[in-house]
Amino acid sequence: MATKFEPKILGFLCNWCSYAGADLAGVSRYQYPANLRIVRVMCSGRVEPSLILEMFIQGADGILVGGCHFGDCHYQTGNYFAEKRVKLTKKLLKRIGFEEERLRLEWISASEGERFAETIREFTKQIKEIGPSPVSGTTPNVDILKALFAAKNAVKDFRLKLLVSRELDLVMEGNVYNEKVPQEEIDTVLDAAINYELDRCSIIFEVRDEALSVDELAQRLELPPNRVLQHIVTLRDRGLVMLDRIDNDTPLYLAVEEGIK
Amino acid sequence: MAMEIKEPRIGVFVCHCGVNIGGFVDVPDVAEYAKTLPNVVHAENNLYTCADDGLTAIKNAIKEKNLTRVIVASCTPRTHAPLFMRICEEAGLNKYLFTFVNIREHCSWVHMKEQEKATAKSKDLIKMGVARAVLLEPQEEVKIDVRPSSLVIGGGIAGMTAALNLANQGFETHLIEKEPELGGFLRKLSTLYQTQESSAKAYEGLIKKVEANDKIQLYKNTTLKSLTGYIGKYDAVLNVNGEDKEIGVGTIIVATGADEYRPKGLYGLGEHDNIITLTDFEKMVKEDKVPADLKSVAFITCSGARGQDKEYCSRICCTVTVKNAMKVMEMASKGGDAEAKVEEASVDEKAVSDKEEEKAEEPEEEEGESRRRSRRDRRGRRGGRRRGAERGEERPKERGAAVDVTVFNRGITTYGIEQELLYNKSREQRVKFVRFVPENPPKVSMEDGKLTVSYYHETLKADRKMNPDLIILATPLTQRPDAQELSKMLKVPLGRDEFFLEAHVKLRPVDFATDGIFLCGTAHGPANITEAVAQAYGAASRASIPMSLGYVQAEAIVSYVDRERCSGCKSCEVVCPYGAIQFDEEGLAEVIVAACKGCGTCGSICPEKAITMTHYTDEQLTAEALAALEEVGT
Predict the structure, then answer these.
(1) N or C: fewer beta carbons within 10 Å in chain B?
(2) Which domain holds residue A38?
(3) Of B78, B597, B621, which is closest to A41 when you measure between CB atoms?
């Protein structure tokens, strides 16, 4: 690398706590590295996984989501949902082999100026140690980039969004039978859903330009063929993938135009 | 969302803020850079943009250069946004077309030693601001009418007080009570501490006032059946004696009160007639049914509270216990006055005062104790009495020790000065306080047909037993079983202890997060009458604000549902803390503008991307963040 690596770090900070904490860091003149770019949102609950993943696709080296401490949220519960969503995003990043440490969630109150500065110092140092994002610069890692795209599409999916929106309610309040669902159980369901949705989004991604057979897909995605077939059936049901042609008794599948988000 | 057809014309004002920004960031350079950004038609730097000449410069530029967006790069929007937004409005520009860029708190002040980087970052931040500004849309704040009427749920002391307060201000008030009579929990109590008045005196006076007030519509045997609407326009269906009645109100006060916790089997509760709760005892006193021949009474505080069953401390039971312990003493001594006088004659005036004895927990006397101990005990008693006499206080009547009262406790918290004095007095009257630790609470059993309390005496370090005639458990107040249903109906939350949860524990103690609904009395948590009444005044006062004004100003930054995309999955309803989302007859979501606070959580959860968070749209956030990732402009 010709010049010293200066990471690009984005901070999505809630107006009421973390953004105000950043203000206090300024008022108190706590110095921190100039790598952070802050985007103000009203609530950390506003920050959705697809926005985070889009920014990683675009080459962000680190992303900080900042909200209020539990119980302090200006909007009561927004930060609880932020926590669930960042957790989901981290699961996805881990699954696709993208350093999940590049995404960080911090609760910083309006009175924690010093902690804000310390957090930024520490986070910047950590990102510098990890190095540039694999998808930034002129030679991005195509596999990871593809996986990030797939992940971004997966988090926009109905199933994952629904699960995440209900997660808190199911754990804290219980389901319609008033049974509280253990967190581990939710995590198991979530992990399975992530795997499935990610696989499906990866399949769509692979067949967006060329028609492929189940075996070819299985090879490219390193998945068992029966799993791929299962996904293809689901995706055909959803109208996202269609049968393109049959070549030597082998069906080849192609993504439906509207299916590519 | 539809894009503005006309190309935005952006004006950028970069502030020196004296040396605060100018001392660390090359402000003229930043302003020059701003001019190179797309859609920027005007950029300048000001010494103080917030001073008169800075503000005038903004106004003039809006008019002369036909600006349709204004960006100020200076300090923090948290302090200065309202000022600049007002200036834009004065110059005829919708104030939501203003963008704030923070280059002081987030830049010059935190990168004081890296001035080049600070300048580059300032440029970046302005670039982000421009990217956002282009996509902004004008927003309107709407006023929502508020009906001058209120619904008060619960006719206990808090509910009645709140209803009277509102009615006296001239607001139409609907007071509903599910029981056939008003009065609430107070009906179960005998006398009230501090004043020693009968509770009936307290509630009967109020009931008369409530019934006589022609602004109060009183509904007994009535519950809330359903509720729709939002602040200013709530439509409620009441179940009055089994029949539906519809009413419309502007605000709601929740004063549903609490129940006493009475689990079967706790220290033998419900298994023996002589194991009762504080409220049972209050009722006994009220109905004059306290057994006349009580020789020994044991109280056990924190029964089922503070980690035993319920996590919380019920606050009021210590004082209520002390009050009732003294009541037992008082009732027993009525018959024992003569005996007391006889004993008084034998008092040895020279008895030494025993300070140690005063401080130590008083061990109760038991058969089989050594003579020495019993002497010590008597000495202590005399000392106590003498000290009382010296202070010229009314002489305690319990001298005859007609009854032995023991309070097993985990520490007595009679909070408040009056209540502390009450506690002191109870000790002077020789109520015995025996401490226990939560790991080793007293055990209640039947031994040889006698009620027995076995316990470990922390001061004596010994296992001991006693045989009380009556065991009174101080159990906590607990939420009513139907609160969950009400909480769902009103879309207001219950806290960890299942009591209703206020909007802010310190700053908004009688508000709910949902506008237009307020809270008072023990529905919020254990409280004594003084506190419940104060809360009721508070809740009534808070509810009267929008009703007096006649309107509320709705937020302009609210979410918006695209009905074409909505699938009715109700995810948004689940995550909305304000109940600001309702579903129409087609099952599609609708945002109640009056109730929405603009957090945007629904927008980011919506699986169909049907919800747009105005002023913080996906496009705006993405554009702003993307601008930061582009190569730093120099």
Answers:
(1) C
(2) 9-130
(3) B621
